[in-house]
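Attaching the record inline, Q. Sequence:
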Amino acid sequence: MSGYTEQILRYANRPDHVGQLAAADGIGEVGLGSKERGSQIAARFFIKTARRRIELVRFQAFGCGYTIAACAAAADLAEKSSINEISGIGREAIVTRLGGLPVDRFYCADLAAEALRAAIASCERHGELVTGSLAPHQKHDGSRLTSDHPRYRQLMDSSCTTDIHSVDRHLLACLLVVMEEEESPVEVALGLTSQQFTSLYHRYFPTIGFDVDGAKVSSAVSNDPELLNLLLGYVAEDDNNGGAILSGALLAHILAARAAKPGHLWVAMGLFERAELGAAIKRHLPLLLTANDQGMRWKRFFYKQICEQQGGMLCKSPVCGECSEYELCFG
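Structure, as predicted:
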């Protein structure tokens, strides 16, 4: 399954459980510790109880649409249930309530369930904040690659023509290593068709063979359509749309695909430093860089733009500098 189903979209856009609860009986969160904040998806649940039943549930989610939908489904399942019943709400119940989730988005349901459990634990501790934790494989606090990675070195040490920019070669080498380690189809890992990927690969790494036909194949390009449309709107009119050279349009597809992964976007792309992502956007999507003139974290900026286009408000403060969650958005 790729993309958002109608059921998932309904939950992602439901406002009834979004926000905070004053004088909550329990507050639980995941991914919002001092060393985690802003580096991965996160959620916070507030619950109000009466006679050991959940009267009200509210949540704040910091992540993609799947994360928001999973939290909304968890809140829907929990409200009006007993504390004993709520302890059984896990991934399976949330995925079922959503009518299914892509397998690579199950972590969103895990996050919601863990944050909800933390809120219940908080009730047992008389409202003391309880922090849950994500599974280790969901945490990406630092670069996934280093310059001595054998596959990266093979790619970067190979010969190519002199007109190829080394920084773009580095970007593609990092993406290739990530794609291969995830064992994902090109369409899912990079958001490119096999033809687009083949053209790029043979242009940037002409002396190293790659069996595209032998790689895993997906039936369709797997991108968040709203995010992809947003990013394509920043492509310059004179952009080289389809050739063997990395272009703004191709980078837009790659960004949309990698933004679906948990954690920082630059980490999901396999880059060594956050600044490398900004540099790539400056080279190929300069209008996007200009739009993010305050240096907001890229994924946060993307989804803030989408939310505002739909008439919503992702942030609880209209002025960034006055918001208590400033560090979630800015490096």
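Residues 148 and 297 are 27 Å apart (CA to CA). The mean pLDDT is 81.

More tomorrow.
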